Structure formats: C-alpha cells, structure tokens
Amino acid sequence: MRRLLLMRHAKSSWNHPGLRDFDRPLSPRGENAAPRIGRYLQTQNLIPDLVFCSSAKRTRQTAALVFSQFSSSPSMLFEDSLYGATISNLLDLIHAAEDESVATIMTIGHNPETQGLALHLSRVAESTAMRALKAKFPTAGLAIIEFDTSSWSDVLADQGRLTDFITPRTLGNDQDPDR
Questions:
Q1: d(CA 113, CA 87)
Q2: Domains detected in the chain
Q3: Which residue of 113, 140, 148, 168 lies most exposed, with the fewest beta carbons within 10 A?
Q4: Mean pLDDT of all residues in the chain?
C-alpha cells in the first residue's frame, strides 16, 4: 500500500503589497493552523517518509511549523516546480519516487493544483470527505489518499481511496483560521 498526503499551504499574508506572490509569508492565522495539522499527523501516525514542498516562502514556513510537531523531520525536498505546477507535473514528481521503502509521500503546495490532484487520483465515492474535498480545499487542508500498489509509478487517476480530508475547522478550535 502507498499513502499520499496532499496539503495546501497555510493561510498567507497579503499585508506586504510590494512582495512577489512567491515571497508572501504566512499570516498569524496560518501560523496557528500549520502546527495543528502537524499534531494531527503525529497523533494519527501519518508520518511521511518523503516530503515534496514548494519552495515558495509560505509553503516552506508551513512545512517548518507542521514538522515542528514531530520528534524528527522527514526527508524533505524543496521543489521550485511545485509553484505553478500542473497536475501532470505533480504526478511526474510522485511517479519518480523509486525507493520501495517510501510508503508515504506528502506534498505541500498550492491550489488549485493540490485540490485538482486529489480529485484526479481519488475514486469517485460518496462520502463526507469527498463532498468536502469537492466543495473547497482551504488553506492548511490535508487530503489523505491510499493506493493498493507496490510502486509509486503505478499511481494512476481514479485508483486512490480518499480516506480522509482534514481542515483546521474539522480539528476544532475557537480560533479556527477558516471561519
């Protein structure tokens, strides 16, 4: 079995009008949400073996806050290609993971590509998670997709099982960044 964790970066700040989009940092709400997702991953034992993270500032900050909740950080590759990637680009990256010991891959990227990839890979099944995923992929959202395959190169469209869709709101908190 292979497990794919697709995360959208946490909420970013628009308070710096002169910054390029690539350089925008997280907002205070994003700084609150990312560690909550990290705690969820840790408590559910959803520890990635390999992380592909966009090299944009807000995704790097998201990754640092998520993995600050872990006892040790997973292997992480910062990829310029994840900023503005297509679904095909994202699949190529996942398919290239050849190490058989890599059972769980996580991507930390941007929308609409993250949501698009989650929908592309997941079998159509009526569930609460699928309805939520189709409706909106909010910042710091996390789609968990499992595949019955022995190789990442065999991950194909409509072959994954969306096992959960987590957002800061589903984790509950009065200071929820998505309200």
A1: 6
A2: 2-12+25-171 (3.40.50.1240)
A3: 148
A4: 92
